[in-house]
């Protein structure tokens, strides 16, 4: 029996999809525990690229039971597409009937707020994530289980003046509101789609633990975007750490908490980025690393690895081991730098907006390597410079590095 968790240890987009897919080989259950369709987990299997936004990446393994928990926001159009993929894979899927549903009006509110903010926009994916979580925390939201019939969906929409309030918000933001009738028509195509997959994922997890099954919890985004630990307002609306697993499933004891981090750093959207590279090196990393958002297609900002932020993320996320991705992208760079501190900032400081916006990075410089490492099959066969780089990271962070990615395919991974 094992209970393991995968979380992002940076600002998201670290490679959780690939590494989750690999680790899921030994799982009986794989559980997506937070976030929504604003996440994009990319897999490359025998050269074929697959991007999942809602369902766990365990759908690629027919032996794995894939659960989507009660704290995950359900975008039904995306869900419809992914269930079709899952069917082709012969995947086992169970969706929690309590999971909040992202309605078209949530996307309108998200889009309208970004337009209204202008240059001050946060840079959301405009998938309705923030507005839906707002409704979740205010205790008035449509649950996935409400989409089993038109009557139940209608009742959920009309609860305590819910739809009237949403309509007023949409009008204020200069969008065209969806009527009660139009929303019911929108829901028509999903009733039969959803019913076969509904279940109680909390009960299933509890039973799986009692039966000593292997469980892998899959997170989205990253600790630096966490609703509590991120730099407000440039963060997501959910908890991206073990807190979400604790609250959703009552699970507190884990065998492994695996933090995924790139050998460099990327961010998409607005917000502070102390080690951002606005030069040819940053452009080269973006090009070689194919750094474009899996959900939006937006180009990601790229920068040197920030060990201050990574150490903070490991501490706040309870990370027990790290897996480093995209080491191959660093091959042939003119130079390699790593941020080891911020001037005049205590090493235990919380990385708030004020700290990150005013951070002045202190760098260590490392020797480069020229040899292509994408075909290396054993850790010991990496260039000495690459191993020196990884050894420094491990010693500085005080967290073991258990695996290193040297390419996008599930086969391109080295175990340390």
From TrEMBL:
Record's catalysed reaction(s): IMP + L-aspartate + GTP = N(6)-(1,2-dicarboxyethyl)-AMP + GDP + phosphate + 2 H(+)
Binding positions (Mg(2+)): 13, 40
Molecular function per GO: adenylosuccinate synthase activity; GTP binding; magnesium ion binding
EC numbers for this chain: 6.3.4.4
Active site: 13, 41
Positions with a binding annotation for substrate: 294-300
UniProt: GTP binding residues: 12-18, 40-42, 300, 326-328, 405-407
Name under which the protein is recorded: Adenylosuccinate synthetase
Name of the gene this protein is made from: purA
């Amino acid at each position: 029996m094992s209970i393991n968790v995968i979380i992002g240890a940076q600002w998201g987009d670290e490679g959780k999809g690939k590494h989750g897919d690999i680790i899921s080989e030994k799982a009986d259950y794989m559980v997506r525990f937070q976030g929504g369709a604003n996440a994009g987990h990319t897999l490359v299997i025998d050269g074929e690229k697959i991007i999942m936004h809602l369902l766990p990446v365990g759908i690629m393994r027919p032996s794995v039971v894939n659960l989507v928990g009660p704290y995950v926001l359900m975008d039904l159009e995306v869900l419809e597409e992914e269930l079709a993929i899952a069917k082709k894979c012969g995947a086992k899927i169970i969706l929690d009937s309590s999971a909040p549903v992202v309605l078209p009006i949530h996307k309108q509110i998200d889009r309208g707020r970004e337009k209204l903010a202008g240059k001050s926009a946060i840079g959301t994916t405009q998938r309705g994530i923030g507005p839906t979580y707002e409704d979740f925390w205010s205790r008035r939201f449509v649950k996935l289980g409400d989409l089993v019939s038109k009557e139940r969906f209608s009742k959920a929409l009309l609860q305590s003046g819910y739809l009237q309030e949403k309509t007023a918000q949409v009008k204020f933001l200069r969008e065209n509101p969806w009527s009660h009738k139009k929303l019911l028509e929108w829901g028509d195509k999903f009733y039969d789609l959803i019913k076969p997959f509904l279940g109680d994922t909390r009960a299933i997890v509890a039973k799986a633990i009692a039966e000593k099954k292997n469980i892998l919890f899959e997170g989205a985004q990253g600790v630096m975007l966490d609703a509590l630990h991120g730099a407000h307002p440039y963060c997501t609306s959910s908890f991206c750490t073990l807190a979400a697993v604790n609250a959703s499933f009552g699970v507190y004891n884990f065998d492994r908490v695996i933090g995924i981090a790139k050998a460099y750093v990327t961010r998409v959207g607005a917000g502070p980025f102390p080690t951002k590279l606005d030069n040819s090196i940053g452009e080269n990393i973006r090009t070689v690393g194919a750094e474009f958002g899996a959900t939006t297609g937006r180009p990601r900002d790229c920068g040197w690895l920030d060990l201050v932020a990574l150490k903070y993320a490991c501490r706040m996320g309870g990370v027990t081991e790290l897996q480093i991705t995209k080491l191959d992208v660093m091959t042939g760079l003119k130079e390699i730098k790593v941020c080891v501190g911020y001037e005049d900032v205590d090493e235990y400081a919380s990385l708030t907006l004020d700290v990150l916006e005013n951070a002045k990075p202190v760098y260590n410089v490392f020797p480069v390597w020229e040899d292509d490492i994408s075909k290396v099959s054993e850790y010991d066969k990496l260039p000495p410079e690459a191993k020196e780089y990884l050894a420094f990271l491990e010693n500085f962070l005080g967290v073991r590095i258990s695996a290193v990615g040297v390419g996008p395919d599930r086969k391109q991974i080295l175990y340390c």
